[in-house]
Amino acid sequence: RYDQSPSYHSEDEEINTPKLKVLEPQRLVILGDEPRNSFYGAYQLPSSRYFPKLNANLDIVSTSENKYGSGTKVMAYCSPTLSTTKIIKELVHGQTPVTKTQVIDPESATVSEQQCWARIFKQWEKISRFEEQGSKNLAQDDTCSSRDIISLAHQGLLSVTGVYSKLAPENKGDIPIVNVKNQLALKDMVSRPQLYAAKNVGNIQKVLVWYFGHLHIFERQVGKHSWWPTTKLNAENTNAAILLDFMRRDLRLFGELDVRLQQFALVEKLAGKKQAYSSLISLEAKNIPAQVLAEMSRVHIWISNEPSHSYLDPHTWHR
């Protein structure tokens, strides 16, 4: 869950440093951890600004919400009797999915984005009068920053070509196509609270960030300037497995909870039962003692060492 105020800026930034002014969407992302049927869903953050509260009679237990750290909070849901699919069904009930409107929204777009879109749309209409068929490619205008163009692409308003097309979704349809040439850095698009976690894996740097309202993993090799996504843009429903693998294996985000689950599996084995937990979210064993559920409900899931925004700078290498 991400609920940081849009006006946020890091206290460790220099007073004279230009602040990243980005309207940051507040989101609730639900990940389902099943080997053959992983799930990713992005929703508007409920007005209560809390995680979903489920009926106590559903036999679902959740971990505790951590009250410290960045605007990103993590909670896990487990059940002794329900499958992952059934838990997710309960969690998404009544939630509002995130969708692309393909219309500029003054409430969610910055002033510069609105000005950029007005300029692009005017150019596109002019070209469309003379080129009824075929692609209508536009060059990057001085009115538009690279970040504004990428943001408009994530709103479904246009498509992007050029080297930075990897940072935008592949939108289809009768929409403008803009060639982004001006330099663009991940730090220009991700504010400090949107940077949730970072990890060095060999000679690769990896970060888990909120990127235009969705959770994504970016990486770069040591000595390189540019960050590129390893998760799929505009196909977020296929990213659950890679996101959870990074959280579990590299970040060890679920370490304490996994220990609790492994302890239960051992108890079940000693009791002569063959069934044990198969995933983080779904615990399909029967007759879990109330004590085990109580222990899980006291677990906090959080990053103890939050990365600095400077981690995204060129040539930054942390051990």
Structural class of the secondary elements?
alpha+beta
Number of helical stretches of at least 4 residues: 6
Mean pLDDT score, rounded? 81
Roughly how much helix do the residues carry, as a percent range?
A: 10-25%
> Roughly how many Å is the radius of gyration?
22 Å
Could you characterize what this model shows?
With 319 residues, this protein is an alpha+beta fold. Among the domains are: 111-184, no CATH class; 193-251 and 307-312. 23% of the residues lie in helices and 16% in strands. The protein is built from 6 helices and 11 strands. A 4-stranded antiparallel beta sheet has the order 8-9-10-11, with helices on one face. A 3-stranded parallel beta sheet has the order 5-7-6, with helices on one face. Strands 1-2 form a two-stranded antiparallel sheet. A hairpin with a 2-residue loop joins strand 9 and strand 10. The relative contact order is 0.16. It comes from Blumeria graminis f. sp. tritici 96224. This is BgtE-3119.
Sum this structure up briefly.
It comes from Blumeria graminis f. sp. tritici 96224. The protein is α+β, with helices and mostly antiparallel strands. It has helices at 84-92, 111-130, 146-154, 240-250, 255-270, 290-297; strands at residues 27-32, 39-44, 61-62, 77-78, 137-139, 159-161, 177-179, 195-201, 204-211, 214-221, 228-229.
